[in-house]
Amino acid sequence: MYRGIWMHPWDFNRNAIAELSKFGFTHVSLAVRYIEERQNWPGPNIIFQNLQQRTYTSEENAVYWSIEKDKYLNIPSYLRPIQSQEIKGDIVEKFVKACEENSIKSVLWFPTLRWEKAVRDNPFIGVVDIYGSHPSYKRMFLCPSNPDVKKALSIMVEELSEKYEFNEFEFDFIRYPEVPTTYSTPLLDLALSPCFCKYCKDAAIDYGINLEEVRKVLKDIVEWHVQYFSKLQEYCTDLDYCEAMYLDFTKELLDNDIIRRWLKFRENQINKLLLQLSKIIRKNNPKAEISADLYPPSGSWLLGQDYKELSKIVDRIKIMIYVKPFKRSICRIPYEAMLARKLVKNNVEIVLGLASWPPTTPEDIERQFKLALKLPIDGISFYSYGWTPKVNLLKIGKLFKEVKV
């Protein structure tokens, strides 16, 4: 049984790896680069497992290995990785060694397309919607069709897979961004999704669709919503209303061939990028497994993630189902796990990514853990080490000891 946990570089130390080994963890995923954020929501704005650093705002554009700058001379400056100025030394090297010493599998966790600073420095490398605007907070995501993006990511993966004898390489944010909305409908969210940059337009022609035609269809949907929302006296969130919205959404997708082909095109772009990067790892570190962190399968297709196709590339799929912190029903866990098992090749492992940070309690963890054991999955991974109170870690360790698999 896969028993994993995610760890940020500022929380790493050899004693932490030794402790996790004693708790029964088999895999630790270390972020080798990270997104720009402060770990404050949802949950308390503190780090439980770092005595020296109870709060931390991550650096922009930082990576945590000793980069060879010469490899990136032909890459635009805004896409070049910059070694961390705050977390000193080659943390990746220390991490891999510490895992080996403690009989834990080392996992290099690689946030792929979410890269705020690069898109701010050059907006033309980011995904854009039908109006040419960046559809997510802080302009977060790189475009998977952009040749400079693909080249930069390939060189980083090449360097990591050449330098380190890790056990698993884990791709995160290998998708398009969510559209942040408060009052909306699923059809409007889709209509405002990316990407319509010039590189996507060229790739779409090769795929057999015209993004300008797609743009016109989606613009009509947006304009309908402009008229609709402007006439409302108040925004409705009643269950009956939400049901009507989703029924309309379903009918539109059934009837609209151009939208369906556009969704498949986006999935194709994500598949191609993941395949390109995975081949590099297979070549340089053939013993390493490859995994991908994915949205729950019920909605992953809206972000360009096709479980069936992605499972042809990777050895392991991790489903991010954070329940209590995001006020989701625990019923999502069996639903998404069984849906994933229906979609994923039988030889590909499925791991549930569960929350272990407050307001999640030890009782919540036990309930979710016991529910997960009844499902057709191959393991559990908890997010994240630094955010997890000691009492929750103790509960996880106790549950691991009770499982004999």
UniProtKB/TrEMBL annotation:
InterPro entries: GH. It comes from the Archaea. This is DUF4015 domain-containing protein.
